[in-house]
Amino acid sequence: MGVRDDRFLRLVDGLAEVEQAQARDYTSFSVRGKRFGYYWPRTKTVGLKQTLSEQLALVSERPDVFEVQFTAGGFGWVVVYLQKIDLDELTELVYEAWRLSAPDALVEEHPLP
Question: Could you tell me the domains of the chain?
Answer without folding.
Answer: 5-106 (3.90.1150.30)
